[in-house]
Amino acid sequence: MQRPLWLSALLALAACATPPSTTDGDAPAKPFVVAAGKPAPARTDEPHLRNVRQLTFDGENAEAYWSHDGTKLIFQRRDASMPADQIYVLDLAAGNQKRVSTGTGRTTCAYFLQGDRRIVFGSTHHTGDAPPVVKMTGRGYEWAVHQEYDIFSATPDGGDLVPLTKTPGYDAEATVCPVTGDLVFTSVRDGDLELYTMAADGSNVKRVTNRPGYDGGAFFSHDGTMLVLRSAFPKDDKQVADNAALLTQQIVRPSNMEICVCDRDGGNFRQITKNGAANFAPFFLPGDKKILFASNMKGMEQAAKTGDRSAARRFNLFLVNVDGSGLEQVTFSEEFDSFPMFSPSGKHLVWASNRYHAKDGETNLFIAEWVD
Questions:
Q1: CA-to-CA distance for 56 and 97, rounded, in angstroms?
Q2: Which DSSP string do the residues of 271-318 spell out, in sequence order?
Q3: Single pTM value for the model
Q4: What is the pLDDT of residues 4-16, one digit of tens each?
Q5: Residue 27: what pLDDT?
Q6: For the chain, N or C: smaller number of CB within 10 Å?
Q7: CA 36 to CA 73: how far, in whole Å?
Q8: Is the predicted pLDDT of residue 250 greater than 60, yes or no?
Q9: Can you list the domains of the chain with their CATH numbers?
Q10: Consecutive H or E run containing 285
């Protein structure tokens, strides 16, 4: 995704999660332990995060999402040798990572389907080996929404690749309902970027949102009844027109996106954040009473005070109640923190960050025990 999901009735977990395990006679099963990566320095100003481990160490790694058994992560990655992002799976016990996309085109937004027997991700490989390019305007913070993207299903090793969408234009950002197994995704098929749901085989497509501007990046609540998403809130009619014109160039400008919640069919739509910043990557905490999300609200405040526009690139993680109250800052890095997701047990959090990078521009994956 442009730089760029909740589970119920799942297995009880120990450490990160408790995967299917074997026992020897009456001997107790060994608890699952995250051995991937290595310990990272702790920050005293981040008390929600304990025993932090860094999982990747080079390139751009983002949008890491848990398998339902809590033993693996699926994520998008690009290093200096690669022309565009590809999808990888990381084994949290062994530390091995494996590419599961084709290695051609451009990919985004991967997720495990129910039962972990298949995965989904957005890809352009079917339109050519070279990754598509969108010419940006160079005016402000912009994301490309490549018209070549479609959503594909595959086995966890990348085999048996099956297209789930075939409509013209952008189809991506698929995540999975932990209760029904349905997918929610973002599409431009009706002329604007809206949310849709579909069955895991691509059938029964239903439109969810109908608002001017970008509605996307959605995740289901643990009980499957709600969606949390990012939604554009243009300041005026001119910005509405500008956004529509940019979309014809396959560009969105996410500078004014707020976190919203709605029922899974789009009903009861309500705005949660109202800070006028770039808010995205929301995820429900276990219990579905709070939301963890990324925002540059503090970076925007710093930019306004100091005149340093680069401060607006600073994103941190924040907690908020589903009624919009109780805002709390969770991370305090001076750079970039985003794409948080809780393990199926709720005991661990994974996110992407520029902290401790070896080279400018690197984004790596981190995991920590969550302290409530």
A1: 10
A2: E---SSSBEEEEEEPTTSSEEEEEE-HHHHHHHHHH--GGGGG-BEEE
A3: 0.91
A4: 433 333 333 333 3
A5: 56
A6: C
A7: 11
A8: yes
A9: 38-370 (2.120.10.30)
A10: none
